[in-house]
Amino acid sequence: MGPVSPAAAAPPTAADRELLARSDVAAHAPDAFRARVRVRPLAGGAARELEIWKGEGGEALVRLLDPSQRGKFFLQRPEGLFLITPGTRQPVRLDPSHRLAGGVSLQEILGLRLGRDYELVDVRRHGSGAQAQAVLALTAKADGLPHARVRWVVRVADARPLRAELLLPSGKVARMLEFRDWGAGSRLAPRQLVVKDLLRGGQAFAVELLELAAAEPPPAIFALDGDAARAALGGTGG
Fold it and tell me: What is the number of other CB atoms lying within 10 angstroms of the CB of residue 185?
């Protein structure tokens, strides 16, 4: 499914803001958790598995589980995204939009924090009844986010997001996240989403959630000292 066609926009209402809150996937995740994710290119190629730890303060660590990548991980802290590699204690600062697993960024894996990081500016409506959709136009509240503008497309009947369109400042859609499958139960947890890079001919990756459980991460895994983080990870059983 391609980008949304232009339609008449209207200022957001209280109901629109409630719809955004109900469909905000990242806001419905546990405050702290451990997850295992598989990322695979749809055109063929090797899949990669990742272990993710997220803390209540918004810190996150992504460990690459491929044996050839042993000891390598990415660390998200308030001051930025860092790469820590074996044999080094000093991290390397990365751009927030850096692709962790081939073609997918940490923000795309963890989910966009829409209610926290974005302002709802207008709404477009399409269809009716069970097919009704709302297209929520969002702009970043602050500089520094990987995506300054987002179109969030939601099925109105059950507040299930259908896709996110990540826009360049010009308004062109650069990347698209399509929600393909959902986990059982009432929690808004996507079991599979597809990330498409529209600037590179539609190159697509499937992101599959294999495990997700509320868990308090050992605080030391979020240290910028690589040795301390690796020692803490060694005791997590992951």
Answer: 7
Q: What is the pLDDT of residues 41-56, one digit of tens each?
A: 998 888 999 999 999 9
- Tokens coding 230: 């690796």
Name the nearest CA neighbour of 182 among 172, 192, 173: 192
C-alpha distance from residue 61 to each of 21, 222, 232 (Å): 26, 7, 12
Task: For the chain, give the number of residues.
Answer: 238
| Token output for 167 | 């826009």
Q: What's the predicted TM-score (pTM) here?
A: 0.85
Tell me how far apart the alpha carbons of residues 203 and 205 are, in angstroms, rounded to a whole number: 7
User: Phi first, then psi: what are they for 165, rounded to 5°?
Assistant: -110, 120
Distance CA 24, CA 28 (A): 7
